[in-house]
Amino acid sequence: MRAQVLLGLESHRRRFGVNPAGFWMPECAYREGLEDLLESEGVRYVLIDPSALQGLPSTDPYYVGSSRVAAIARSERAHRNAWDEHTGYPADDLYKDSTKYYQGSGLHYWKVTGPNVSIENKEIYAPVPAQARAFDHARHFIKAIAEELRAAPASPGNGAGAGAKPVVLASYDTEFLGHGWKEGIYWLEIILRSLARSEGIRMTTPSRYLEQNPPSTSATLGLTTWGTNKDDSTWINPETAWMWEALGETQKTLFGLEDFRRGSALENRALEQAAREVLLLETSDWPYMVAKNRAKDYSIERFCAHLERFREIAGMLEKGDIDKLESMLGEIEETDNIFAQLDLETIFGRGIPPEEGN
After folding, report:
1. pLDDT digits (tens, 9 = 90+) for 186-199
2. Cβ count within 10 A of residue 283
3. Residue 125 gets which letter from DSSP?
4. Could you give the strand order of the β-sheet that contains 70-73, starting from the edge strand earlier in sequence?
5. Of 305, 237, 242, nearest to 277 (Cα)?
6. Are 111 and 122 in contact (CB under 8 A)?
C-alpha cells in the first residue's frame, strides 16, 4: 500500500506543482497506520467512510489517532441517495440505461424502464422527462442535506471546536456523473446553481472547511471500506481468490527483479514497465467487477492480459533475452502507459519488503 500511496502523491505533485492537502483513498479504504504515512508526506486530511468512525457523528472532523491528519467522513445519506444500485437516483425508470447499448453502434437508446427489465422490453429514452426528473432529484438531494445539517449534534463535545459548523461531505467517483449516470451532469449543475444562491447552506472544500473548523478531538478509526459490508469482502472473496494469489506472486517476483535497476538503460526501462503492469493488476475494479458480475469477462480479460505482459517482461529479464525484450517493449509501453514518468525509487527505494508492499 505504501508504494501506491507515494506514487499517487508524486503524480499529483508532478501535474499540479503542489503537495496535495488531502487524500481520498481508493474505495474509501482505511487501516491503522495510514495516517502516519500521509502525515509524513505532508497530507493534512483524508476522506473516509463514516463506518470508520464507529458511531461518532459524521458531520464533525477528527484527528486520526495521535496524528495531525484530519478525517472527514462522507455522508452516508448523500452517498446512498445518489449511488445506491437499487434506490439511488440513476436507478429511476426515466433515466438513460448506461449499461445497455446497440451492439452495432454502441449507442444507448433505452431508458432504465424498471428493475431487471431485459433489453427487449425496455422503452425508448426520452431526454425531456429525464431532465425533469433530474431537477426533482436535485431538489430532493438539497432537502436531505439541509435535514442532515439541522440534525447534526451541537459542537463542542464532538469532533469540532466551539462555534464550528457541521459538514456534509458528498463525494463521488468522477465517472459516476455523465458516464454511469448521463443526467448526473445536469443534476449536479442544478445543485451547484441552487446552493450558490442558498442563504442556509454554504458550499466549500475540505481544505477551506478545516481552516475554519479544525478538529478539537481525536478518534480511533476502524478498519473499513465503502464496500457492501463496509469491509474488504467486496473485493476479497472465493470468486476472486485466484486473482489475489496471482497478484501476490507477481508482487514478490517484481521485488526479486530489483537488481536490474543497476543494469542497462533497457533493463531499467523494462523494470519500469513491469512495475506498471503490477500497478494495473492492483486496480480494485477487476475483483470488484468479478464479485459483482459486472462486465466480469472483460475484467478477467484485462487482469490476465496485464499478468501475461508482466510475466513476459520478467521472464526475458531473468533469461537475459535482451533482443526479444527490446522488440516487444515499445508495443507494451504504448498500450499500458500509466505513470509514464514512473520513479523506481518509489517502488524499490524506501525499504519496503514484498510482504508489506501488498
Report:
1. 999 999 999 999 99
2. 16
3. P
4. 22-24, 45-48, 70-73, 62-64, 218-219
5. 305
6. yes
C-alpha cell belonging to residue 222: 476502524
Number of Cβ within 10 Å of residue 8's Cβ equals: 17
Give strand pairing partners of 155. none
| Rg, C-alpha atoms of the chain | 23
Q: Which one, of 304, 303, 308, lies nearest residue 286 by Cα?
A: 303
Residue 132 has pLDDT above 50, yes or no: yes
Model pTM score = 0.86
Q: Give the pLDDT confidence of 134-177 residue by residue, as tens digits.
A: 999 999 999 999 999 999 987 554 555 666 899 999 999 888 89
Q: What is the DSSP string of 315-345?
A: HHHHHT-HHHHHHHHHHHHHHS-SSTT--HH
Which is nearest to 23 in space by CA: 171, 185, 214?
171
Q: Which residue has the cell 517476483?
A: 253
Report DSSP state, residue 238.
G
Q: Which three cell numbers stand for residue 321?
A: 533475452
Q: Which domains does the chain have, with CATH numbers?
A: 2-82+137-219 (3.20.110.10), 238-356 (1.20.1430.10)
Q: What is the pLDDT of residue 340?
A: 85
Tens digit of each residue's pLDDT (9 = 90 or more) over 237-248 = 999 999 999 999
Residues in contact with 10: Cβ distance below 8 Å, sequence separation at least 6, in sequence order? 343, 346
User: For position 161, what pLDDT does the model report?
Assistant: 60
| C-alpha–C-alpha distance, residues 219 and 61, integer Å | 9
Q: Is the pLDDT of residue 275 over 70?
A: yes
Contacts of 309 (CB under 8 A, 6+ apart): 273, 277, 332, 336
